[in-house]
Design brief:
Length: about 575
């Protein structure tokens, strides 16, 4: 039993420690300033009620990015000093964001303890390394991100903080070795348990999916598979689930060794950054070597996002959640009793809306931010949800879940190919095209303009709001750009009233809704660590079966031209092209 003392340290506030919907994200060089991390952690403890800190059990882990190991030791020592009873840490400091949510909700410690919250160390899909991004966020006892009421309190405390508490003489914990270390401080015992990062999550997935049918699929000579973790924390789960449990070949795993700098890559699972997977699946610019696999998937840094690919075929995230919802009851045992409801973020295409209407399901359109889905799930109103930014999930946890989405797709493939006697294998592309034939197709793309001057980005958004005051003027401008584009029927700034807690979220994105069901959405995103990111979403709905097979860029070309000229994108930003197109 190691004794430790508590030190009170003087400090002064830093500017700009306001956590967004995804926590606090900054460059590593910002986080390593003296007291910067400490201020935010102490402000978080101060913002929580006493019973969620004193005597509590907290999870402290993340995606393993640069500075995580040092941060885990600091947060552990501050937890001890603030009266926390025990800290749980994933081995090597690794836990995916969905796994943390699952651990909070499901795990019971050796002494019967349950976690009441977590500090998650991640900057999600942003790069890692000494000159790149770091992040921290707090999740609550339901496993979901802290609500706005808590994040606002955290921010308020960061603006006035004068002291923090830390057990400086507490020895660093060996996070590479599983086991419990016992300490004693002024308020009594304090324990740190390092536990296997994957076991609890694997157990949860086995309670949701039919692993036997998935093993049968992966052993089929007609099926080939590839999974790319982009050197993120998803690699800590890939071998355990896909190889050990489901029998995939190890050669089907790409970049599945977690690295502090994600191997120098950008751990964002899209067609731009998942280059190796995209090439292997036959979607690269050059001809692929050999026949591509039937199924491919990728994860981001903290493994909560996913990209789904078929052989030479990209599944949009908006289509993905709609197809999962349409097939969940038949293909996934967890949903065999039916879906409670479905939900999507506002910028996500309306493909899910059409499924919900057809299946007579409750449907919700919410602002971007997983906490809005969490409220619906806690109220028993939502089973499956998703967002266009490669996030898909269900009510098994309160975060989006990349590996869950992969297993959902594998389950649909297994179901569609069950008991088939003919040679034809039902592919990912077959499933998507069958879905379009049944529900119509939502042609969809997103343009990201990253690290735009923040002032210029705000001016562009203000201009678009001002333009909405006269729809006749908007339609006149549009007809001058493209006469073959429908008129705008409605334009607004999206506002959401939460049906559970009554809270109102304003200024959630600028919408132009067209008479034919098309949409243009403009949003400022807060997920980068510097500058502003303008996201432009373009959607065209097509019900005519003879027109659902067009190339997406051809179908969307008129709307793209309208969006760029109507917004004066180049004039405001100086950009002639987006940074990323998805």
């Amino acid at each position: 039993m190691v004794l430790f003392n508590v030190s009170r340290k003087d400090t002064t506030p830093f500017d700009g420690q306001k956590p967004g919907t995804s926590g606090l994200r900054k460059k590593v060089k910002v986080f390593i300033q003296p007291n910067y991390l400490e201020n935010f952690v102490q402000a978080s403890f101060n913002a929580l009620t006493a019973e969620k800190v004193r005597g509590a059990t907290l999870v402290v882990s993340g995606d393993g990015r640069y500075y995580s190991k040092e941060a885990i030791q600091i947060i552990t020592k501050m937890s001890a000093a603030n009266g926390v009873r025990r800290v749980w840490i994933g081995q090597n400091g690794l836990l995916s964001t969905p796994a943390v949510s699952g651990v909070i909700r499901e795990r019971i410690g050796p002494d019967g303890s349950k976690a009441t919250g977590a500090f998650i160390l991640t900057a999600s899909h942003n790069p890692g390394g000494p000159n790149e991004d770091f992040g921290i966020k707090y999740n609550m006892e339901n496993g979901g991100p802290a609500p706005e009421g808590i994040t606002n309190k955290i921010y308020e405390y960061t603006t006035t903080i004068k002291e923090y508490f830390i057990a400086e003489d507490l020895p660093d914990v060996d996070i590479a070795t599983t086991g419990v270390t016992n300490f004693t401080g002024p308020e009594g015992p304090f324990d740190v348990e390092v536990f296997d990062s994957a076991s609890d999550y694997v157990k949860l997935m086995k309670s949701i999916f039919d692993f036997e049918s998935l093993r049968k699929l992966l052993s089929s000579p007609k099926f080939t598979f590839c999974y790319d973790a982009l050197h993120g924390v998803g690699g800590a789960y890939a071998k355990r689930i896909f190889v050990d449990e489901l029998g995939a070949q190890e050669s089907s795993l790409l970049n599945c060794t977690p690295k502090e700098d994600f191997g120098g890559g950008h751990p964002d699972p899209n067609l731009t950054y998942a280059k190796e997977l995209v090439a292997r699946m036959g979607l690269g610019k050059s001809e692929s070597k050999g026949e591509p696999p039937e199924f491919g998937a990728a994860a981001d840094g903290d493994a909560d996002r996913n990209m789904i690919l078929g052989k030479r075929f990209f599944v949009t995230p908006s289509d993905s959640v709609a197809i999962i919802a349409a097939n969940a009851v038949e293909a996934i045992p967890y949903f065999s009793g039916g879906l409670k409801g479905v939900a999507r973020s506002m910028p996500t295409s309306a493909a899910l809306d059409v499924v919900a209407k057809s299946l007579n399901l409750k449907f919700f359109e919410v602002p971007t931010g997983w906490k809005f889905f969490g409220n619906l799930m806690d109220a028993g109103l939502c089973s499956v949800c998703g967002e266009e930014s490669f996030g898909t999930g269900s009510d098994h946890i309160r975060e989006k879940d990349g590996i869950w989405a992969v297993l959902a797709w594998l389950s649909i493939l297994a179901y569609k190919n069950k008991d088939k006697t003919e040679d034809k294998f039902v592919t990912v592309e077959d499933i998507v095209r069958q879905h379009w034939a049944a529900y119509g197709r939502h042609y969809y793309t997103r343009y990201d303009y990253e690290n735009v001057d923040a002032g210029a980005a705000k001016e562009l958004m203000s201009y678009l709001v001002k333009l909405q005051s006269s729809l006749s003027e908007v339609n006149q401008i549009i007809k001058g750009i493209r006469s073959d584009v429908s008129n705008v029927a409605h334009a607004d700034e999206f506002e959401y009233k939460d049906s559970v807690d009554g809270s109102i979220s304003s200024h959630q994105g600028i919408r132009y809704l067209f008479e034919d069901g098309s949409r243009l959405i403009f949003r400022l995103s807060g997920t980068g660590s510097e500058g502003a990111t303008i996201r432009l979403y373009i959607e065209q709905y097509e019900k005519d079966p003879s027109k659902i097979g067009r190339l997406s860029q051809d179908a969307l070309a008129p709307l793209v031209e309208v969006a760029l000229k109507l917004s004066k994108m180049q004039e405001f930003t100086g950009r002639s092209a987006p940074t990323v197109i998805t």
